[in-house]
Design brief:
The complex is a heterotrimer of chains A (463), B (100) and C (368). Chain A has 18 helices and 23 strands. Chain A has 463 residues and is an alpha/beta fold. In chain C, β10 and β11 form a beta hairpin. In chain C, α1 runs parallel beside α5, α2 packs across α5 and α2 crosses α8. With 368 residues, chain C is of the alpha+beta class. At the A-C interface, α15, β23 and α18 of A face α5, α7 and β15 of C. β9 of chain A pairs antiparallel with β1 of chain B, so a sheet runs across the interface.
């Protein structure tokens, strides 16, 4: 590892792997930094060493990560694994923590590809032992070949929830129920997006095949769900909710035993490093999430910083990979490794393919909007899991005159704990906007500050 | 709570959780090991003392903080199991460790 | 006129003044900044601090001592009115000295403060053994410490919250998200033009921190403000080990450890820098070796509002009588003074003896 590279890529998911491989091919002196031991990010986690039979259960889309990892490993890019980025600021000083030692690296260009996290789904009891994210369930399957041993209930909305249900079915996991919290969006809202989505018809077919498999397995699927709660004393004992079609129809109350509840309502960008670098943010009303302002090449509002993949706005693994390649082309052009024309020639095919993979997004975003109830939870629901601050306290601070999340945080401690707002940030801003009538853009987001990964004072003192 | 897909042909190592010995697969995270061993809580929060287990498994939620080999507040989902590792429930705020 | 007073600025200084004025039954409006404004009030260390302050300016030593003495009563009333607990403790405080030179310098300053206050300021210089009796975790490299029983600490964020609740309880109109374009003095009153529109009042008080220089010019006041960045870190929660604050290390009621401090002249940049954080961490680990194994949760920079001589400015405009400013960096320690005697002075009911010593005239003395 050197202390300076022409290009530093952060994150070894599809976008980062593609960016680093492409950049190395273009002759840039590039290093890729990642916190995991092996390349792949969350989506292709452990794909390089996955064993049968789990690899089969995970499916074709997962195995697509294999050639990408291969391409990266053979590209000549420097791979700095098991390294967490604990520091980054607007002067783009990048602090890495490797094996308890802190190092600083500089680069002429930075490509941030830090991926996504699951959208927090605050509901009563979500802090109980036994309640996890669907993504956590998948990580256990990918990296530890582990599955729930007894009755698992899946709740929420979105493609990943269907995917893990399908994967669990392949392995033979007993799924107690799927609780679909997707608000009834109605076909009419979807129609405008359908023609645009048709080029990515394979996405639609895949989703359909999951739904059919779930139906065929006879797993109860509850729709039009409200009042979802995780219940139990020291740990999860049951899941309760009401179901029914509204409009005066009678709602049925359901209370089912469960030992494990996996929650999911889509993914949102992992914004911390782009924000630390000073990249501008904008609100995406369709995705109901923040994203980083960028152009088609991934150029952010900060000259030396490019952003690729889900960290800049949710696009999915395939599109992320293509964005990574475009970033690399642009960085290579900026650093005078490739002229304008060859850059554009190389980009043509990538851009066309990117268009196809992006075309499905508005359709998916409209099909699976996050339910209001878990963006604006009831007063007694915990929003900040670290400092144990509930939605009522946040509303009260907003009523007192706090106009943004940073002031709310000062008065309530919401977001001050070890996760530094990763699990409450989106909810806090939404609650303030709802309470004050301001737009999300007016309300804004938490100010991010280092460290971005745990570091001890001793490690810092010896930097 | 969680089990292995295939319980045969797995290399294992020994570690202890709350003083009890367990055999767990090589290469998994401490948080995965905790779930595999059927532990029902891995910490009590410093705010209310309420019990927690892993939530996100990807290093962002900090709900899987445990005392590992004597070091408090370690992210169990980000650490791989090692032979003879000593894993303890994190009880509230961290203890002070004297620097040697 | 809609209001008796408009207070520009809703940080610790503005909120203390507004709260104090409203308690005198004045009708008060506060124009506050937004969520991302430079806010010294959200970045500070939480010390109610006497020791060492004003060693080079006797009125400030006396002023600070009086403020700290007002605190217990101030807190009692504030908590009683608002129900907000602010974790105040007059625990005494320490300043560690790592070597002989630091110790001698410190002892000299402490003695000067004692003399300036006619003996009202009490302190002791503790050698290493006596220090270690009080704080067993302190490292052997710490030579000793200055100690004053008159120091204390508080949660500065809860203090701000309590003051805002107090304002609310006394019907202060609080306008957040304001940026003030202009303040006019006309028709025997003042007109503020801000995001909210135009508001009018008999009198106006500038408590806008770094913005006071700009606003002061509109009202015939030359308010010299200097930016001074400090960086602070906070750790994970620890079991209690430090029952009184030190100037560099303080354990909060929650158990987290706040570590400071630094002074930098970097303009309007409230970011952090690795080299300064490293220096702060080093000093903390030198003082408390066990901290080496403690994890950092957050580091931040905040901008202090400094005056050229570091002492507060209390001034009424001579060009525009009725326009006041309170400009200072010790918004926590002086909160008790600001909500009490200073608010009464601005309200017109009394005049603290020392107030003249803090006018801007002191910057205009031509060199003899």
């Amino acid at each position: 590892m050197k202390d300076h590279y022409q290009l530093l890529v952060i994150g070894a998911g599809p976008a980062g792997l593609a960016a680093a491989a492409e950049a190395a091919r273009l002759g840039l002196d590039v290093a890729l930094v990642d916190e995991q031991k092996a390349p792949g990010g969350q989506i292709y986690r452990n794909v390089g060493s996955i064993q049968e039979p789990v690899s089969t259960y995970l499916g074709k889309d997962y195995l697509r990560g294999k050639p990408l990892v291969e391409e990266f490993l053979q590209s000549g890019a420097t791979y700095i694994n098991s390294a967490s980025v604990w520091y980054l600021d607007e002067r783009l000083e990048t602090g890495l923590l490797i094996d308890g030692a802190s190092h600083f690296i500089t680069a002429e260009r930075l490509i941030l590809a830090t991926g996504a996290q699951e959208r927090p789904m605050p509901l009563p009891g979500w802090q109980l032992p036994g309640v996890m994210t669907a993504g956590a369930g998948q990580i256990l399957l990918k990296s530890a070949a582990m599955i729930p041993s007894r009755r698992v209930v899946l709740a929420g909305s979105g493609p990943l929830l269907l995917l893990i249900a399908w994967q669990y079915l392949q392995v033979g996991v007993k799924i107690g129920a799927i609780i679909d919290t997707t608000p009834g969006s109605g076909f009419s809202k979807l129609l405008p997006y359908l023609p645009r989505a048709l080029p990515a018809f394979d996405y639609l077919l895949k989703g359909l095949s999951f739904i059919l498999a779930i139906k065929k397995a006879g797993i109860p699927v509850y729709k039009a769900v409200a009042d979802l709660r995780a219940e139990g004393h020291e740990s999860l004992e049951s899941v309760s909710f009401t179901t029914g079609l509204g409009d005066g129809n009678k709602r049925t109350e359901i209370d089912m035993e469960a030992e494990t509840l996996l929650l999911h309502q889509g993914v949102i960008p992992n914004l911390r490093l782009p924000l630390a670098a000073g990249c501008e943010l904008e609100w995406d009303a369709l995705q109901q999430s923040w994203k980083i302002v960028k152009d088609i090449w991934g150029q952010s509002s900060v000259d030396q910083v490019l952003v690729a993949g889900d960290c800049a706005g949710i696009v999915g693994a395939r599109a992320g990979e293509l964005q990574g390649r475009l970033c690399a082309l642009q960085a290579a052009h900026q650093l005078k490794k490739i002229d304008l024309q060859p850059r554009d020639r190389a980009a043509t095919r990538i851009k066309r393919s990117l268009q196809r993979h992006l075309s499905i997004r508005p359709f998916l975003d409209t099909l699976y909007p996050p339910a209001k109830a878990y963006q604006l939870p009831d007063d007694e629901t915990l929003v900040c899991r670290c400092e144990e601050v509930n939605a009522g306290q946040i509303r009260e601070a907003a009523r007192m005159g706090c106009v943004g999340p940073n002031q709310v945080k000062a008065f309530t401690r919401c977001g001050m704990g070890p996760c530094q707002g990763c699990l409450c940030g989106s909810t806090v801003s939404a609650l303030i906007a709802d309470e004050t009538g301001a737009s999300m853009e007016q309300v804004g987001y938490f100010r991010v500050r280092p460290p971005f990964k745990p570091i001890t004072l001793g490690e810092l003192a010896n930097t | 709570m969680f089990r292995l897909v295939d319980e045969t042909s797995v290399d294992t190592l020994k570690l202890s959780i709350e003083g009890r010995e367990y055999d767990v697969p090589v290469g998994i995270s401490v948080a995965a090991a905790v779930l595999l061993c059927g532990i029902t809580r891995l910490r009590n929060t410093p705010v209310s003392g309420s019990p927690r287990l892993p939530y996100c498994m990807m290093g962002i939620c900090f709900d899987c903080l445990m005392t590992i080999d004597g070091f408090p507040n370690q992210q169990a989902c980000q650490l791989e199991v090692r032979e003879n590792m000593t894993i303890e429930i994190q009880q509230g705020a961290a203890e002070l460790l004297q620097q040697r | 006129m809609e209001y008796d007073f408009i207070v520009a600025g809703g940080g610790l200084v503005g909120s203390s003044i507004a709260y104090g004025l409203a308690r005198q039954k004045y009708k008060v409006a506060v124009l506050d900044g937004g969520d991302r404004s430079f806010r010294a009030s959200r970045g500070n260390f939480g010390l109610v601090w006497v020791q060492g302050k004003g060693w080079d300016y006797a009125p400030y030593a006396q002023w600070t001592g009086q403020a700290a003495d007002l605190w217990p009563q101030f807190v009692a009333e504030l908590v009683n009115e608002t129900g907000v607990e602010i974790d105040y403790q007059r625990s005494g405080g320490m300043h560690f000295c790592l070597n002989e030179a630091e110790w001698r310098e410190r002892e000299r300053e402490m003695e000067m403060v004692r003399q300036h206050t006619g003996g009202a300021f009490e302190y002791e210089m503790l050698d290493h053994d006596r220090l270690q009796q009080q704080i067993p975790q302190v490292s052997n490299t710490v030579l000793g410490a200055s100690y004053s029983p008159q120091d204390g600490h508080v949660n500065p964020l809860y203090l701000l919250q309590a003051l805002q609740q107090g304002m609310d309880a006394h019907q202060v109109h609080y306008y957040p998200n304001q940026s003030i374009d202009r303040i006019e003095a006309k028709q025997g009153g003042f007109y503020t033009h801000s995001t909210e529109g135009t508001l009018s009042a008999e009198k106006v008080v500038l408590c806008a921190g770094l913005d006071n220089r700009r606003l002061g010019e509109m009202l015939g006041m030359d308010i010299p403000v200097v930016v001074d960045r400090g960086q602070i870190m906070i750790t994970e929660r620890l079991q209690p080990f430090l029952n009184l604050p030190t100037l560099h290390v303080r354990q909060t009621a929650e158990g987290t450890v706040q570590i400071g401090y630094s002074h930098e002249d970097v303009g309007l940049d409230d970011g952090t820098s690795p080299s300064v954080l490293k220096k702060i961490a080093r000093r903390a680990v030198l003082m408390f070796p066990f901290l080496a194994r403690v994890q950092l949760v957050r580091a931040w920079g905040a901008l202090r509002i400094m005056t050229p001589d570091h002492n507060p400015i209390y001034q009424q405009s001579t060009d525009c009588p009725g326009a006041f400013t309170v400009t200072c960096h010790s918004g926590v320690t002086l909160a008790a003074m600001h909500s009490g005697p200073v608010a009464e002075w601005i309200g017109g009911s009394s005049r603290p003896d020392l107030i003249n010593q803090f006018s801007t005239d002191r910057f205009n003395v031509s060199p003899g």
